[in-house]
Specification:
The protein is of the alpha/beta class and 181 residues long. Helices cover 48% and strands 13% of the residues. The chain has a 5-stranded parallel β-sheet, sandwiched between helices.
Length: 181
């Protein structure tokens, strides 16, 4: 259920959605407006050389991160969505089209190839061509979206689902106006 969002009534904001939807960008913008610290989950998940942590280690990391008193957390990682939803008071879900997300991922890969993604990824994980990941993006709506939405619809906090980037931009502009920036 949507409620008016103000900087004073949120402490733990979860931003989720398909890769390429702009979760990290939205988290940075919201962090600048609210002063909440931003946690990019990719920077905590990946080990150098794009290695995966064990499932137990990853869940332990998430439990540690969500225990912090204030945060904006962006990332997909459906296997820990339950822990993040249980701790969050506000949810922003970016439900953008496959075409938009795939285009953004392709652009990010092309223009960032071989470069670090400044704070979003740990050392030793530079932007690369990853066909399985791109296939995941292309199939996200069909294979993963409904499961994510099922978890999201049971969320007890304030939730905002945006289907177009313009809606998110208006939301952020409204928040900016409400806090007098």
């Amino acid at each position: 259920m949507e409620q008016e969002l103000t900087a004073q009534n949120m402490n733990r904001v979860l931003i989720a959605g398909c890769p390429g939807s702009g979760k990290s960008q939205a988290a940075r913008a919201l962090g600048q407006l609210t002063g909440l610290p931003v946690i990019h989950l990719d920077s905590h998940y990946w080990l150098p050389g794009w290695q995966h942590p064990t499932k137990a280690a990853w869940r332990a990391t998430i439990q540690e991160l969500v225990a912090r008193p204030r945060w904006i957390m962006d990332g997909n990682f459906a296997d820990t969505l339950d822990l993040r939803l249980a701790a969050a008071d506000t949810l922003i879900y970016l439900d953008f089209s496959t075409l938009l997300c795939a285009t953004r991922v392709a652009r990010r890969t092309l223009f960032g190839h071989g470069k670090s993604r400044g704070g979003e990824l740990p050392e030793g994980c530079v932007e690369r061509i990853d066909w399985p990941f791109f296939r995941f993006v292309l199939n996200y709506r069909e294979d993963h979206r409904e499961k994510d939405l099922a978890g999201i619809h049971s969320f007890a906090g304030k939730s905002y689902i945006f289907t177009r980037p313009r809606q998110l931009a208006r939301f952020l502009a409204g928040l900016k106006k409400s806090i007098g920036i």
